[in-house]
Specification:
Helix content: 25-40%
Shape: globular
Number of helices: 16
Largest sheet: 7 strands, mixed
Number of strands: 25
Radius of gyration: 22 Å
Distance between the termini: 18 Å
């Protein structure tokens, strides 16, 4: 993949969004990276080789953002929801902590805004933050209206506090299984809705663009022929990219597919160097990784190192309630200092009955490994959790590619800046899902019925090499290990240069091939996005938020800017 730098320029055009706040706003600029992917489409196709389906709105992804978008579509419009796996499997469904919103009379919008801005380390867009914070309570009440059962105390919604928040403003469900309950209610609201179809276990290979506008996608499923889904408007809500890294809280499906297909179609991506690492992931050798929610520390848990020392007060006055980037980096440093593979969460000083009632899911998971969270030290270490960077969108979820809208983790909205504040992600998905759904619905109503050009064909060249020559599992494991070592929590130019060279080597013999199943397409998407993230991280020669450069440990005010990535040049 060819890469070239472009000099900084002022933000312009739809999707560029307003610059950061304060003094930075007057000098906001963009650093541009232009890439040339090896292929526009991952598979070759022609009109006679595929089936064709037509709809008003195509929603790619069935998490919180995608399903909330469906609920904003106008009555009578046809919509198709395409999910890579089962509708019940998404990052949203696995979310533990909760949804942030100002519901306490002692709290206010200004406090929530200030907390979000402080966590974002100079890259949040104030207008976006204020909009999301202002709309959050309404979106939460809408969830209650469709049947979401949030935890209550004495008939009032129970609110908890998490790291970086100045007040208790996190609503939660079933103790520590908020995402599961929210998705249950959303799924019930969407399934059976008139005009809405859901295709599960359907992989979106690439977007279709005609005349410079997105007109749907080409999809593949085991139980139907390869299909061009022609849509007047398309909403991308595919979630994150945690599987780029060896240590992650994300499910197997989080392979950066949405980022990759948008980029290949010509949409702009932004802030791809910012991957948030969750500080506390259950660490037991040989087991899958399980998230230990931020709310555990919000309710008073302590972090101790391998010698039993409570170390967070040594790093930050907020101790365990410091923002995630601070806690993750402190844990990483303490692990290195003590030469111990992990640190430990200590809840033994808290009331045992309260702990079991508040965190039933975590208690069950730990019990499976012989750990009692009320008395035992729980081993944890950081893991890749949330991709802050993504497809650039405006306040309505519109991307830089006409006809394509996006919401949720696949986007870069300007809300999170350089570090996401805990529990701001689900509310972002709700707010932008609602806005993108409404805007896409209106645009679809204005699009004539003869919008599609089913004569489109792929002209990509592909090697006809035998797929069996490649061990895709081995390559994917090597990729995630490489990214964890060199583009993980701590980064240096030398390490990222090594990663760049290795990624380019793999890309030369992987990306020119045409695969015929999901495993190959996922690998190609991961390789593309790994290169984008690494290039962006090399371009930011400072430390800011979740981006820690050991060779550039200070924050540079001159770099309070977005790194924008495109597959085309102006």
């Amino acid at each position: 993949m060819a890469v070239s730098w472009r000099p900084p320029s002022k933000p312009s055009g739809r999707g560029g969004a307003a610059g950061p706040v304060g003094l930075i706003e007057e000098t906001a600029r963009l650093s541009r990276l232009v890439f040339s992917p090896r292929r526009r489409h991952l598979v070759r196709f022609s009109p006679k080789q595929v089936a064709h389906v037509f709809t008003d709105v195509l929603v790619i992804g069935g998490g919180i953002a995608g399903l909330r978008a469906v609920l904003s579509l106008a009555p009578g419009q046809r919509a198709l929801v395409v999910t890579k796996d089962l509708l019940t499997l998404s990052n949203s469904a696995q979310a533990q902590g909760g949804i942030a919103g100002v519901l306490d009379p002692l709290d206010d919008f200004e406090h929530h805004t200030a907390d979000t801005m402080a966590a974002g380390k100079g890259l949040c867009h104030r207008d976006v933050v204020e909009m999301v914070v202002r709309e959050a309570p309404e979106r939460i009440r809408e969830l209650i209206g469709i049947g979401t059962q949030f935890d209550e105390t004495n008939g009032q919604i129970d609110l908890t506090r998490e790291g970086g928040h100045s007040h208790r403003r996190i609503v939660h469900a079933n103790g520590d299984a908020t995402g599961l309950e929210v998705m249950r209610a959303l799924q019930e609201a969407v399934i059976g809705r008139e005009g809405v179809s859901v295709w599960q276990n359907t992989f979106t290979i690439d977007l279709l663009d005609v005349g410079g506008a997105c007109r749907g996608a080409i999809v593949d499923a085991p139980d139907r022929p390869r299909t061009c889904v022609w849509a007047k408007q398309t909403i991308l809500a595919t979630g994150g990219a945690g599987r780029l890294f060896r240590e992650t809280t994300n499910p197997e499906i989080a392979t950066a597919d949405g980022h990759a297909i948008a980029f290949r179609a010509g949409a702009e991506l932004r802030d791809m160097e910012f991957m948030q690492f969750h500080p506390t992931v259950l660490y037991i050798a040989g087991s899958s990784r399980h998230l230990i929610t931020e709310a555990v520390r919000g309710e008073g848990a302590w972090l101790r190192d391998g010698h039993g020392h409570r170390f967070m007060p040594d790093y930050n006055e907020a101790a365990e309630l410091a923002p995630r980037d601070v806690v993750s980096q402190a844990i990483t440093e303490q692990i290195a200092k003590t030469n111990h593979p992990c640190v430990y969460l200590d809840l033994s000083h808290l009331d045992a009955g309260f702990v079991r009632g508040r965190f039933p899911h975590i208690a069950r998971v730990c019990a499976d490994f012989g750990l009692d969270i009320t008395s035992d030290q729980v081993p944890v270490r950081p893991g890749a959790h949330y991709m802050i960077g993504g497809v650039t969108v405006d306040e309505f979820g519109q991307t830089t590619l006409p006809g394509l809208w996006a919401a949720g983790e696949v986007t870069s909205t300007g809300l999170h800046g350089a570090n996401r504040l805990a529990s701001n992600s689900l509310v972002e998905g709700l707010v932008y899902g609602a806005r993108a759904g409404e805007a896409a619905s209106a645009a679809a109503a204005d699009t004539p019925d003869d919008f599609a050009v089913p004569g489109i064909a792929s002209d990509d060249k592909a090697a006809d090499a035998d797929d069996e020559e490649l061990n895709l599992t081995d390559l994917r494991n090597a990729l995630s290990s490489l990214m964890w070592r060199h583009v993980g929590i701590e980064r240096t130019e030398q390490g990222m240069l090594e990663a760049t060279e290795q990624l380019e080597f793999w890309d030369r013999f992987v990306s020119n091939r045409e695969f015929h199943d999901v495993a190959g397409w996922e690998l190609q998407n991961l390789l593309l996005v790994a290169q984008l993230a690494t290039a962006a991280a090399r371009g930011r020669t400072e430390s800011r938020g979740v981006h820690l450069r050991q060779d550039h440990p200070e924050t540079d005010p001159a770099q309070a800017t977005h790194i924008v990535m495109r597959s085309w040049d102006d």
